[in-house]
Amino acid sequence: MRVGIGSQNPVKVTATEQAIGPLPGATVDPVDVASGVPDQPTGLAETRAGAETRARRAYDAGGFDLGVGVEGGVASLGSDDLYLVMWAAVTDGDRVELAAGPSIRLPDHVAARVRDGEELGPVMDDAFDRDGVARDEGAIGVFTGGEVDRTEALRTAVAGALGPFVTSHYG
Is the pLDDT of residue 113 over 80? Predict the structure, then answer.
């Protein structure tokens, strides 16, 4: 089985490889595609749309059995707080399945900067004097004290979206 992941980001690629891992003979190939949403997706719908667009575009790149898209964003989730959100989509060219990863509240000083139009990744690097948080443990890793890292969070989202394709539980 050949799987295209709609990103060159090593964290997203590794998360997809780990979710696909139990499938015999499966390979994962990164495909550079645009998400169709802003660099900092805002809201659940926009974040989901980015994941779905990445999955469709990866699949359409050709020769893949499945296309995977992963997108991280921020959303208010019905409160004044701002949360990190993440979505994964998997498509076989006919149907698209979606699943979410964990969400975590952003600290006020980070949320304020994101609300002012900055992208979360660079804010994390600056606010925590780091380099490449988005390609390493992610905001979720920083805010859980390393208990959950970005790869694991995204892996669970990809595994959830993959479930209907690899189990008989969805009919």
Answer: yes
